[in-house]
Amino acid sequence: MLQPLADAVRAKGIKFGLYYSQSQDWNNLGGGTGNKPAWDEEQKKGDFDTYLKTISLPQVHELLDIYHPAYLFFDTEYSMTPERARPFFDLVTSYPDVIMNNRLGGGVLGDTATPEQRIATDPLGRGFEVCMTINNSWGYNAGDTRFKSAQQLIHNLSDIASKGGNYLLNIGPTSEGIIPQPEVNRLLTIGKWLKTNGEAIYATEAGPYVDGLPWGRVTQKAQPNGGMTLYLHVWNWPADGKILLPGVKQSALSGKLLANAAAVTTAMTDAGLVVNLPGSATDPDASVAALEFDQPVLLATSAPASM
């Protein structure tokens, strides 16, 4: 059943990942029930350790051996002790190209952190991805119409990228595989924004202001010649066309808006680099300007946060 999905994803040049819940299984005796009671008394007759050894671990082996995922997302680590987690860890790490998250349990840190429903960096300094729903439900819920606006989703993406993370946005297809139209509308809007501004998201690193700025967010990308590009995600377009990069004491070589290539100029001040934006906002959700520097951008200490 998974092979057609894997083939379709890879045909689009997308890495294929799989979710696996090792500690919730209501179909097999002994399977974990997470933090919920068993559906029936039969479920309690099995042994969890036997389940892990004879059902769960072989399933993970099958997923890795047959479908070759680039990413394995474990979830619900209830009752997973170090002894129970060890065989899974040894199995996954025997596939050196597979990335594993931090939800196997038993003290396994994994390769990446996965804060859920909140934007947060990883205190251990690892890569991270924010897991968040497009409304309030992980699966399809006909009664849940509390969809996040396209602007909020774009701002989330911008904010997470500025902190150096990935955005794992969950959508809930129906039992027929149909994505609800409100979700389609939002995804298309994000796609349109990325078509123009994807350069400021893809293959970028955390910007120098991981706590954000009053007018928006910043990502950056190192260039082969030793230079650096700063991408300014302007959420709030200023009335006077000026925004501040506090603490920047380096002159920009050049600048432009990604949407229309209009020139962006800069001026050095005691507070930092003032950026002069041309015209008006190019996007109602987030306009992006790219500034080119001849070397990595370093911030002076004790810089003010706004003009």
**What is the assigned CATH homologous superfamily of the largest domain?**
Glycosidases
| CA-CA gap between termini | 56 Å
- The oligomeric state of the chains shown is single chain
Number of helices: 5
CATH class of the largest domain: Alpha Beta
What is this structure's SSE topology?
Blueprint: H1 2-11, E1 17-21, H2 48-67, E2 71-75, H3 82-93, E3 99-100, E4 112-113, E5 127-133, H4 150-162, E6 166-170, H5 181-197, E7 205-206, E8 216-222, E9 228-234, E10 242-246, E11 254-257, E12 265-268, E13 272-276, E14 287-293
Parallel strand pairs: 1-2, 2-3, 4-5, 5-6
Antiparallel strand pairs: 7-8, 8-9, 9-14, 10-13, 11-14, 12-13
Report on this model:
With 307 residues, the chain is of the alpha/beta class. It has 2 domains: 199 residues, Alpha-Beta Barrel (TIM Barrel); 88 residues, Immunoglobulin-like (Sandwich). The protein is built from 5 helices and 14 strands. A 5-stranded antiparallel beta sheet has the order 7-8-9-14-11. A 3-stranded parallel beta sheet has the order 1-2-3, with no helix packed on it. Strand 8 and strand 9 form a beta hairpin. The longest helix has 20 residues. The termini are far apart.
